[in-house]
Amino acid sequence: MAANYIPRLLFVLLYLTELVHCLTPAQWRSQSIYQVLTDRFARTDGSTTASCDVNEYCGGSFQGIINKLDYIQQMGFSAIWISPVVKNIRSSGQDGDSYHGYWAQDIYQVNTNFGSASDLVSLSKALHGRGMYLMVDIVTNHMGYDGCGNCVDYSIYNPFNQQSYYHPFCLIDYSNQTSVEQVLLGWRQYIDGLRIDSAKSVDKAFYQPFEQAASVYAVGEVYDGDPNYFCDYQNYLDGMLNYPSYYWITQAFQSTSGSISNLYNGINTLKSACKDTTLLGSFMENHDVARFASLTSDYALAKNAIAFTMLADGIPIIYQGQEQHFSGSSVPNNREALWLSGYSTSSQLYPFIATLNMIRKQAIKQDTGYLTYKAYPVYSDASTIVMRKGTTGSQVIGLFTNKGSSGSSSFTLSSSASGFTAGQAVTDVLSCTSYTADSNGNIAISVNAGAPRVLYPTSKLAGSGLCGGSSSTSGIPTTIRTSTVTGGCSTPTTVAVTFTDKVTTQYGQTIKLAGSIPQLGSWNAANAVTLSSAGYTASNPIWSGTVNLPAGQAFSYKFIKVNTDGSVTWESDP
After folding, report:
1. Is there a catalytic annotation at residue 323?
2. How far apart are the first and last CA of the chain?
3. Residue 277 · residue 270 · CB < 8 Å
4. Are 317 and 66 in contact (CB under 8 A)?
5. Distance between CA atoms of 317 and 135, rounded to whole angstroms?
6. Is the Cβ–Cβ distance between 521 and 527 less than 8 Å?
7. PANTHER family from the xrefs (predicted)?
8. What is the SS3 string spanning 454-501?
């Protein structure tokens, strides 16, 4: 049932935004978002074997998320988007129970299946302590679930406890804009966090006052593949989830006969129709659409689709389970329990996604115009598309193909397309293959086993941790990231510091960071920070991790190696 009493609801939205770190739309451009379905991400007890009936609550919690933030951050994500947090009706609707959080009953109470209000605050603080950000899913289009329209007990809802707050039930004419705005679409159509879903179901006049009052970025879902219809909503919203590109990317890479031409033409159309494609949310999976792996099991095709999505214009969004190649199709089978994967960091796609986040961060660091530079296709054929993004000299060239894991090809990338110059050294950061442009600036490219290529100037890789882009431990710069906030938000008192150690390890060994302050374990090896090997290769054995430390505090630290038997080797004094 759909509520239309916006002023009171806006108050609740503003109350909940206190849990969100203040970021402007421009600041959101540089983020990378991991979508969490709270009930299915992690349990408080840490189980990786607990069964999960996908129609029912399975035990995921706010505390479970806190416990597994390393898993998310070490994949390179700087923000998470979680399920709606308010109290829900417990009922067996057409899609099971309210584990997803979209059947609101009382928007002044937290869904206790996920934890307490203090647990939610703790999650927010844990994220901010890491220099990460929280996007809260909030439903404004409806209360309850799509059930019997004539047998509703309105008294159980808070605050919308009278029938007068709701639109009358009627059949929907989806071709009529007024009808689409004024009648319910069911719980799948929702408004969440500072992400506004079901944008077609809410009067457009709602958006601008909401965004102005909230003073943070809001991304809306316009579930439509027509660029002209879709892009009109950017006259009212900062950004939207990029559904047109989702359809084109899926069609292009779901099989070896996919349509590259539709993707090529679509990208150009979208850039012309939308006000700013760099503020769109770029995705290829979420909790409402079929998993890509349900369409094809080919890892090469999945890698091409993921790489295209993450390096396109806008803010990349990865839905939990993509990194484990989950293959659920329709709702609710696409809402699997992630803990059953064991949170593997050695699966094919986990380090692949981590590498993509690393090259995106490096491109942002090296090129102040990267985030607002609008990517465009510079080459295409029946099975390949080449995209260019970034200022000349720091440009990222992505080569994507639907040849599949059994396919291969080769062609010459011209200087006019890539912007590379005669004799310039470039590196494919996904395979660490080196190329040198010929006297005309052209580069001969081979595609093996259908793998994507992401080319970047070798000279710009220093300090990235990619493909030899870092020196030895003593020479590796410690990267310090600071946050600038506006709109009356308080200045952070902590600084996110990235530590990198280049050291060869054997299977089962790990590298930790120990230091003189509590955040680094106070020289206690048992409490030291475990670094990630997501970017580790035989030629570039890099361990890295980001820790949020008190601003302005001096400290000392060492890297330690933990062996399979638990023994510890400390780094020598400099």
Report:
1. no
2. 66
3. yes
4. no
5. 12
6. yes
7. ALPHA-AMYLASE 1, ALPHA-AMYLASE FAMILY MEMBER
8. EEEEHHHCCCCCCCCCCCCHHHCCCEEECCCCCCCCCCCCEEEEEEEE
- Identify the helix (H) or strand (E) that includes residue 510: strand 510-515
| CA distance linking residue 483 with residue 488, whole number of Å | 14
For 427-439, write each residue's pLDDT tens digit. Answer: 999 999 999 999 9
The secondary structure of 290-343, three-state, reads CCHHHCCCCHHHHHHHHHHHHHCCCEEEEECCHHHCCCCCCCCCCCCCHHHHCC
Residue 408 lies in a domain: yes
Angle among Cα 93, 97, 102 to the nearest 5 degrees reads: 85
**Whether pLDDT at 153 is above 70:** no
Sheet containing strand 557-562, edge to edge, reads 529-530, 510-515, 557-562, 568-570
Give pLDDT, residue 552: 53
In this structure, are strands 281-282 and 315-319 parallel, antiparallel, or unpaired?
A: parallel
Whether residues 440 and 499 share a domain: the answer is no
Question: pLDDT confidence of 471, banded at 50, 70, 90?
Answer: very low
Number of neighbouring beta carbons within 10 Å of residue 574: 6
- C-beta of residue 314 within 8 angstroms of C-beta of residue 239: yes
Question: Please, are residues 562 and 512 in contact by the beta-carbon 8 Å criterion?
Answer: yes
Cβ-based neighbours of 237, under 8 Å, separated by 6 or more: 196, 199, 207, 211, 218, 219, 220
Same domain for 563 and 484?
yes
Kindly report the backbone phi and psi dihedral angles of residue 96, in degrees, each rounded to the nearest multiple of 5, phi listed first: 90, -150
Residue 82 neighbours by CB distance under 10 Å: 25
Q: Which of 106, 119, 192, 197 is catalytic?
A: 197
- Which CATH number characterizes residue 441's domain? 2.60.40.1180
Q: What is the pTM of this model?
A: 0.77
Q: How many CA atoms lie within 13 A of 218 on its CB side?
A: 29
Place of tokens 């004094």: 573
Which residue among 119, 211, 221, 336 is the active-site one? 221
Residue 98 lies in a domain: no
**pLDDT tens per residue, range 96-114:** 777 787 777 776 788 899 9
Q: Is 221 annotated in the active site?
A: yes
Contact criterion met (CB below 8 Å) for 562 and 506: no
- Give residue 426's domain range: 376-460
Of 430, 460, 490, the position where a domain reaches its end is 460
In angstroms, what CA-CA distances link 17 with 134, 257, 449?
A: 10, 45, 46
DSSP labels, 220-277? EE-----HHHHHHGGGTSSEEE-HHHHHHHHHHHSSTT--HHHHHHHHHHHHHHSS-G
With a CB cutoff of 8 Å and minimum separation 6, the contacts of 153 are: none
Angle between helices 349-366 and 299-311 (to 10 degrees): 20
